[in-house]
Amino acid sequence: MTPDRRRGADPSLLLLISLAAGPKHGHAILLDVEGFSGQRLGPGTLYGAIERLEQDGLVEALPADDRRIPYRLTRAGSAYLTGRLEGLQHLAGVGRSRLSA
Amino acid sequence: MRLALRLYPDAWRRRYGPEVRQLIDDGRASPADFADLISHAPLTATFRGEASTMNRHLVAHPGRLALVALAITLPTAFFVSIAVLKYVLGAPGPFDAIEPTVTPFITHPIGETVVVLAPYVALALAILPFARLRLGWREGRVAASAEVAVPLTNLLVGALSATLIVVMGIYWMAENL
Fold first, then answer.
1. Chain B interface, mutation test: which of A46, A59, A88, most B Cβ atoms within 10 Å?
2. Element at B163 (helix H, strand E)
3. Rounded to the nearest 5°, which phi and psi values hold at B143?
4. Is residue B77 within 8 Å of residue B160, measured between CB atoms?
């Protein structure tokens, strides 16, 4: 059986990547994440991640549009995401070079 | 789905509840979404230790909690005390006087179970509502911390219950090992 390559991605990272394209509310984040990663996040996962990221100052809420609250990356969130992606890129590079060795 | 939200603490529901309800209205209400909402509730509500509605009511009346816990553990304290008096300190008087009355109760399986479990229940009741436990999964690691701020009365009842548990444990080991 071939393991699903997209399974197990960190929801916080997916959320940050989604918000890197611009502010979104919860439903838009879920659709976007599902679109680019194939991972279907549930509401508990999504708002658990949003809560942690807000507490860490990596995302912030914008004024509410009725019951929909858009979120955006903070400057710290943008820097954090850049660092995480560079780290992942480095790991991917090491992995690929070892596989081809 | 809305019922699942009841598992979350009040503060969380006030902050994120309307958004989750909007998600449900937007069509995210599958059994998988329901399961996801439920499975994340304990992490947020219980382990993070933000007072849930029930916990808040308990914490608001620490004296009553201490009293109930004391009432639960007192019979065990009584039996353990007279057993220590007789078998450890060699003062059989008090136990011999009441032995015919209490023996049928403490030798009955149900009575014995009640006496043994009571201090555990009392300890949990006196202390746990005041414990704030945080457990999470961050960056591939389990992050856990605990903070306990217990009123003195509850601490004393908890200490009594813990002492009884230790004494019963020593007695059990002496009997069985």
1. A46
2. helix B152-176
3. -110, 120
4. yes
The CATH number assigned to the domain holding A67 equals 1.10.10.10
Q: Considering the domain boundaries, does residue A2 fall inside one?
A: no
What is the identity of the amino acid at A15?
L
Domain hosting A26: range is: 11-100
Residue B156 to residue B141: CA distance in whole angstroms: 36
DSSP string, B36-52: HHHHHHIIIIIIS-PPP
Q: Do A68 and B24 count as a contact with CB atoms less than 8 A apart? A: no
> B29 to chain A, minimum CA–CA distance in Å?
9
Number of A to B CB contacts under 8 A, please give it. Answer: 59
Amino acid letter, B54: M
Give the global pTM. Answer: 0.54
- Assess if residue A93 is contained within a domain: yes
Residue B26 touches chain A, beta carbons under 8 Å:
yes
Q: Between chains, do A48 and B43 touch, taking CB under 8 Å as contact?
A: yes
CB atoms closer than 10 angstroms to residue A47: 24
Domains contained in chain A, number? 1
Strand partners, B131: B148
Task: Please give the ipTM for the structure prediction.
Answer: 0.82
pLDDT digits (tens, 9 = 90+) for B46-75: 544 455 555 666 667 788 888 999 999 998
B141, B103 Cβ separation under 8 angstroms: no
Choose among B22, B39, B136: nearest Cβ to A44. B39
Question: Which residues partner with B141 through β-bridges?
Answer: B138
**pLDDT, tens only, A33-50:** 999 998 889 898 899 899
Question: pLDDT tens-digit profile of B143-162?
Answer: 777 777 778 888 899 999 99
